[in-house]
Specification:
binds adenosine monophosphate; Rossmann fold; about 280 residues; 9 strands; 2 domains; alpha/beta; six-stranded parallel beta sheet
Length: about 280
């Protein structure tokens, strides 16, 4: 496995691979890798001649007061895991080389980015769209693999790729969970032992909503209320629990076609998200 640290070197390597007719698969991450990330790397490994992963804690997707500085990092461990999983090129740039002085160009998706996580994190998806566009221009992949855990991010990036005619296939991988159901996340390590136990409430709440949906319940209010009941028994603070149209992320009252139930809950400073698709 080769580690590439500059955008220029990454792009040159990718151009050479494309000229040689290789299929490039790409998994973008912010590092501190867990089984969720590794599952995406394995999906990409199946289909790619050359597998590229990136580790970049992108400063522009964090708002003021968010956890940019505290975001967990362990490059040596990440490097070892990537190597074990058969990553060929590990792109590990610095913020200074990714955002040269005077950076003033942004990619903004306007239809799906303002709700759910975007409501509490107004610059988040602009940062995500900008960095992913830059990464795609550097890695030149045939396909990239994203996790369904970040449901809104997946939909925003699919839309961006379609709207901007970016020549990349977007492949998604299912959410990988701990044994008790908590969705794996780099941020889980900041939960206290007590909060870690309580944090399964996101998964339990979604499970209850899924059961009710299977039993015929179609009211979004009823479904969100029962998730709320589960969360409110814990010390978590609800940021949002919403039922939205699976495609356009608009809030819905009655579930008539595939819907996404998504939530964000904070434990002390740690913001956790999870989701389930209903009716697909
Ligand atoms: P992050 O490092 O959190 O930016 O995540 C990098 C990629 O891994 C994104 O596409 C995420 O959706 C995906 N991901 C994060 N957690 C999980 C998980 N538990 N299961 C599957 N994919 C995940």
């Amino acid at each position: 496995m080769k580690i590439i640290r500059t955008p220029r070197e990454m792009q040159q390597a990718a151009q050479a691979l494309r000229r040689a007719g290789k299929t490039i698969g790409f998994v973008p991450t912010m590092g501190f890798l867990h089984e969720g990330h590794l599952s995406l790397i394995r999906i990409a490994r199946e289909r790619a001649d050359v597998l590229v992963a990136s580790i970049f804690v992108n400063p522009t997707q964090f708002g003021p007061g968010e956890d940019l500085d505290a975001y967990p990092r362990d490059f040596e461990r990440d490097e070892r895991l990537c190597c074990e999983e058969g990553v060929d090129l590990l792109f590990y740039p610095t913020p200074e080389t990714m955002y040269l002085e005077g950076h003033s160009t942004w990619v903004e998706e306007e239809a799906l980015s303002g709700m759910l996580c975007g409501a509490a994190r107004p610059v988040h998806f602009r940062g995500v769209c900008t960095v992913v566009t830059k990464l795609l221009n550097l890695v030149l992949p045939d396909f990239m693999v994203l996790g369904e855990k970040d449901a809104q991010q997946l939909r925003v990036l699919r839309r961006m790729v379609r709207n901007l005619n970016i020549p990349v296939d977007v492949v998604s991988g299912p959410t990988v969970r701990e044994a008790d159901g908590l969705a794996m996340s780099s941020r889980n390590k900041y939960l206290s032992p007590e909060e870690r136990k309580e944090a399964i409430c996101l998964f339990q709440g979604l499970g209850k909503a899924k059961e009710q949906f299977s039993a015929g319940e179609r009211s979004a209010d009823v479904l969100t209320a029962s998730v709320r009941d589960v969360i409110e028994k814990t010390s978590g603070t609800i940021d949002y629990i919403e039922v939205v149209d699976d495609e356009n992320l608009q809030r819905i009252k009655v579930l008539e076609k595939p819907a996404l139930i998504a939530l964000a809950v904070k434990f002390s400073g740690v913001r956790l998200i999870d989701n389930a698709v209903l009716g697909k």
